[in-house]
């Protein structure tokens, strides 16, 4: 598998077919199509560097805030201010992506996020950082980042052929999983040698790397979009995604299903902490989480080598069933070895499931509307992420924990299997979450609208032809 990945990566620039995707494309684009894969490689590199920088800032800033204030609530407020605004602004971000040149949208959003991050470095270097400055900076960074997500997702199918979308999405998943391993280790080394303000300066430099990669390449513009958007109001563009999905029940079901999957994944990430700490030490928790991240890396590598070129919906649903069974095992027995193994298997499935969903969205929607559609998708999908910890925490503390404490109502029955203790209530909630996930994935396999997305993979996205993949190529080679 590793050999396949290496051989594919070395020939990345040849991924895009030399034949335009539709007859309406300019003839002079044909000779430049092979450069699309090389451009995608440059963009992925810049994005990966930027992700590392952002991860370092989050790691160092979290430590600094907790050391200065000792308040978990303030840490939570920082997390909320760095996530919620981005979710709220996504519909507007989608309209921006479809209205303007996506390359320049990415350049400006990266510069904006970089300078907002830089605004934190100066007060930190002088030792006069106020909490309101942190909140304001996180809100602004989150808003700029909200534009980047649909823009990168919409650019990918313009550069990469349909057959290789899975591999490119696998590379992106690989970078995201690797960042989860690299940034805590690198952050621990840097924070021992540098001030937090200096680490934020490093983050600013990584934003500049992303900007340089965007300036160095040509990203195809969807010329049809500007003519179709002419004379339309911003409000109609913001609400367009809802009407588009309402007319396509298969995509609407996939949207809701993705939001549910994100909820289950986040619940698993939250509950694994009390479950492991109820059995062992924080260092063992770190090992379990590292194994989970390693599983995600392996899953993304498999996605790169495999590509999932057909039957993405069925692949996603079958892996979802495996994921649900693994979540059940995470809470089924008070065994650290079982929990660690189940965590690795569960997170192994996640990047492949995510990659399958991404391929469906990129190949079943028209290129000129993908900014708005992906924005709606991200809005709904991410809305369950901040909700999951609140629901999981409330259910664990108020309902499930009392059931399995010593002498609790279920301690003599269910407790004989799951275990008894103050944190075994979280384990019971994990088991029930996994059961619900399994039932949902099994039921989804009987949804004709959802399964029809697999059957439509060889059909055009509309009467005008399939313009969702590799329909445009740069007007000149990479600089």
How does this model look, in words?
This protein is mainly alpha-helical. The protein folds into two domains: 32-221, Growth Hormone, Chain: A; 235-460, Growth Hormone, Chain: A (Up-down Bundle). The chain contains 17 helices and no strands. The chain has helices at 2-10, 35-69, 72-99, 102-125, 131-159, 165-191, 196-215, 223-229, 234-246, 249-277, 282-306, 312-332, 336-363, 370-404, 415-418, 424-444, 448-455. Helix 10 (249-277) packs antiparallel against helix 11 and helix 12 packs antiparallel against helix 16. The longest helix is centred in the N-terminal third of the chain and has 35 residues, at 35-69. The radius of gyration is 23 Å and the shape is globular.
Low-confidence stretches: 4-33, 223-227, 458-479
Order of helices and strands: HHHHHHHHHHHHHHHHH
Amount of helix: over 70%
The profile of the biggest β sheet is:
none
Determine the CATH topology of the largest domain: Growth Hormone, Chain: A
Q: How far is it from the N-terminal to the C-terminal residue, by CA?
A: 32 Å
Name of the level-1 CATH class of the largest domain: Mainly Alpha
Strand content of the residues, in percent?
under 5%
Named at the architecture level, the CATH assignment of the largest domain is: Up-down Bundle
CATH superfamily of the largest domain: MFS general substrate transporter like domains
Strand segment count: 0
Overall shape: it is: globular
| Mean of all residue-level pLDDT scores | 76
- Structural class by secondary-structure content: mainly alpha
């Amino acid at each position: 598998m590793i050999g396949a990945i290496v051989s594919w990566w070395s020939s990345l620039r040849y991924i895009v077919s030399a034949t335009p995707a539709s007859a309406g494309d300019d003839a002079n684009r044909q000779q430049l199509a092979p450069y699309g894969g090389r451009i995608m490689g440059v963009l992925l590199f810049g994005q990966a560097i930027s992700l590392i920088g952002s991860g370092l800032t989050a790691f160092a800033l979290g430590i600094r805030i907790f050391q200065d204030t000792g308040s978990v609530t303030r840490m939570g407020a920082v997390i909320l201010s760095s996530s919620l605004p981005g979710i709220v602004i996504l519909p507007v971000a989608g309209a921006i992506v479809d209205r303007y040149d996506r390359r320049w949208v990415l350049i400006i959003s990266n510069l904006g996020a970089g300078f907002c991050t830089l605004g934190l470095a100066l007060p930190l270097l002088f030792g006069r950082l106020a909490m309101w400055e942190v909140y304001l900076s996180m809100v602004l960074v989150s808003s700029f980042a909200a534009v980047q997500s649909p823009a990168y997702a919409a650019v990918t199918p313009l550069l990469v052929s349909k057959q290789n979308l899975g591999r490119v999405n696998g590379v992106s998943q690989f970078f995201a999983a690797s960042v989860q391993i690299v940034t805590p280790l690198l952050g621990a080394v840097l924070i021992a040698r540098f001030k937090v303000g200096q680490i934020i300066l490093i983050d600013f430099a990584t934003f500049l790397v992303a900007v340089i990669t965007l300036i160095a390449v040509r990203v195809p513009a969807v010329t049809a979009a500007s003519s179709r958007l002419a004379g339309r109001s911003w409000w109609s563009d913001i609400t367009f995604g809802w009407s588009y999905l309402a007319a396509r029940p298969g995509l609407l079901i996939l949207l809701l299903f993705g939001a549910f999957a994100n909820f289950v994944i986040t619940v698993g990430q939250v509950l694994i902490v009390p479950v492991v700490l109820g059995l062992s030490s924080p260092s063992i928790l770190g090992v379990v989480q590292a194994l989970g991240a390693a599983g995600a890396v392996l899953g993304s590598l498999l996605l790169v080598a495999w590509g999932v070129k057909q039957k993405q919906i069925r692949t996603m649903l079958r892996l979802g069933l495996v994921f649900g069974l693994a979540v059940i095992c995470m809470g089924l027995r008070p065994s650290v070895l079982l929990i660690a193994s189940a965590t690795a298997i569960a997170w192994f499935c996640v990047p492949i499931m995510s990659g399958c969903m991404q391929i469906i969205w990129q190949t079943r929607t028209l290129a000129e509307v993908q900014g708005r559609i992906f924005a709606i998708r991200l809005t709904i999908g991410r809305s369950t992420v901040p909700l999951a910890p609140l629901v999981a925490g409330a259910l664990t503390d108020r309902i499930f924990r009392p059931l399995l404490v010593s002498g609790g109502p279920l301690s003599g029955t269910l407790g004989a299997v799951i275990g008894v203790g103050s944190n075994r209530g979280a384990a019971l909630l994990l088991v029930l979450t996994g059961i619900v996930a399994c039932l949902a994935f099994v039921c989804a396999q009987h949804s004709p609208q959802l399964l029809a997305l697999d059957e439509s993979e060889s059909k055009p996205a509309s009467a005008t032809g399939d313009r969702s993949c590799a329909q445009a190529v740069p007007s000149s080679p990479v600089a």
